[in-house]
């Protein structure tokens, strides 16, 4: 593979204003695994309801659903910084992506044969580590396949295809469970993971850091603070989005909803996010990223509170669709801002701060929601989450500075 001659941050193997075709190959290859990821996120909170358990017999089902989601998210979040540093040190990304795909495939197959709640918790913890191996490597690869002027578009395109897989995966999982059973759905997840593993192994080339010899560049204290604010914003957005997974069993009862209708509600968020992700990325490239991040945060506040008041599946679907638009306005510009703050050096280890916070939000959202709903009241977690997202909005306005336009 040819070495990139661009300066740091200018985009590996890409021309100014254009995207490397490898970006599309990577995104399509990973699409199948993303379908499986969406299936698992929807299936597991429902699957655990009827599983045997030795230690959690008296635990409310919303808390159990939160535990399963949390162990996955925490192991994912904790492993990402380590995996990001390791991939930067080795200057290898593909091996981490493939290893994560293999782990996903094997564990998806194992779920179909698991009948104990405690084992599901253990396997989700391990699966979180395998995902943590892939995320920093993929973010770094997307970065090296783009330039400063196209980074928002590149991240938007990748995130759109990833989101499409995740969203339609929930619907696919609902259809399979509705007409067959959970075991069949898990076997399909394993097959999808196997397809992605094959495609990435044979069709995606490894990405090398064009600034690897200068990777000892340090980030200023001002940039460090901005990293932490962006990480907080991503954390709170994901908490507000993921708490719904702890409430799936409760929504099924309250709204008299079927697994298929709940899967549509889960997917409504991802589908709208997919539709708006790339446009938001393009707009952020030309008009600035800070204001768009702030707007997305502000819009999500009433949406999250509203999730505690829905009394029909239609209302839930509509709110989740608007939540997808809000997330599209935050995720793409946040990641583009984070990449610019790194200066293009050691992207995997540094941007993993943001992706790890995103994973932590995925982890703690369902647990926070489940515990507060199970032991305080159903609507309490929605109010608390809304207040914290509003705080993130204020901090973004006060602290984040729009980076100077780069002339890659």
Automatic annotation (TrEMBL):
One term of GO molecular function: transmembrane transporter activity
Source taxon at top rank: Archaea
Family annotation (CDD domains): MFS_MdtG_SLC18_like
One cellular component (GO) term of this entry: plasma membrane
Organism: Methanolobus zinderi
Membrane topology (UniProt): Multi-pass membrane protein
Membrane-crossing residue ranges in chain numbering: 31-49, 95-113, 125-145, 157-179, 185-204, 225-248, 292-310, 316-339, 351-375, 381-400
Pfam families: MFS_1
Subcellular location: Cell membrane
InterPro entries: MFS (IPR011701), MFS_dom (IPR020846), MFS_trans_sf (IPR036259), Sugar_transporter_CS (IPR005829)
Protein keywords: Cell membrane, Membrane, Transmembrane, Transmembrane helix, Transport
Residue span(s) of domain Major facilitator superfamily (MFS) profile: 22-404
Full protein name: MFS transporter
């Amino acid at each position: 593979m040819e070495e990139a001659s661009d300066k740091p941050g200018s985009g590996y193997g890409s021309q100014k204003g254009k995207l490397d075709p490898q970006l599309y190959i990577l995104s399509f290859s990973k699409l199948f695994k993303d379908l499986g990821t969406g299936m698992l996120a929807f299936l597991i909170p429902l699957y655990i309801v009827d599983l045997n358990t030795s230690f959690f017999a008296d635990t409310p089902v919303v808390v159990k659903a939160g535990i399963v989601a949390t162990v996955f998210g925490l192991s994912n979040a904790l492993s990402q910084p380590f995996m990001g540093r390791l991939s930067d040190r080795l200057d290898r990304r593909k091996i981490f992506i493939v290893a994560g795909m293999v782990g996903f495939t094997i564990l998806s197959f194992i779920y179909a044969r698991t009948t104990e709640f405690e084992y599901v918790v253990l396997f989700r913890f391990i699966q979180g580590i395998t995902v943590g191996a892939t995320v920093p490597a993929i973010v770094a690869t997307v970065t090296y396949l783009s330039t400063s002027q196209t980074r928002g578009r590149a991240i938007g395109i990748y995130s759109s295809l990833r989101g499409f897989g995740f969203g339609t995966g929930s619907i696919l999982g609902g259809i399979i469970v509705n007409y067959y059973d959970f075991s069949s759905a898990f076997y399909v997840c394993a097959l999808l993971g196997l397809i992605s593993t094959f495609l990435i192994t044979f069709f995606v080339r490894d990405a090398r850091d064009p600034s690897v010899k200068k990777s000892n560049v340090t980030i200023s204290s001002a940039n460090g603070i901005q990293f932490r604010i962006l990480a907080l914003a991503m954390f709170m957005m994901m908490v507000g989005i993921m708490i719904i997974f702890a409430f799936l069993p409760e929504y099924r009862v309250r709204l008299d909803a079927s697994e298929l209708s709940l899967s549509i509600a889960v997917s409504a968020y991802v589908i709208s996010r997919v539709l708006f992700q790339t446009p938001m990325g393009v707009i952020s490239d030309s008009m600035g990223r800070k204001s768009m991040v702030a707007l997305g945060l502000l819009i999500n506040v009433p949406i999250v509170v509203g999730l505690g008041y829905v009394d029909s599946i239609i209302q839930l679907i509509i709110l989740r669709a608007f939540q997808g638009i809000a997330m599209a306005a935050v995720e793409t510009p946040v990641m583009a801002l984070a990449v610019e703050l790194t200066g293009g050096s050691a992207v995997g280890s540094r941007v993993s701060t943001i992706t790890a916070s995103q994973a932590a939000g995925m982890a703690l959202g369902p647990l926070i929601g489940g515990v507060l709903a199970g032991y305080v009241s159903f609507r309490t977690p929605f109010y608390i989450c809304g207040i914290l997202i509003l705080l993130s909005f204020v901090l973004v306005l006060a602290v984040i500075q729009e980076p100077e336009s780069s002339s890659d």
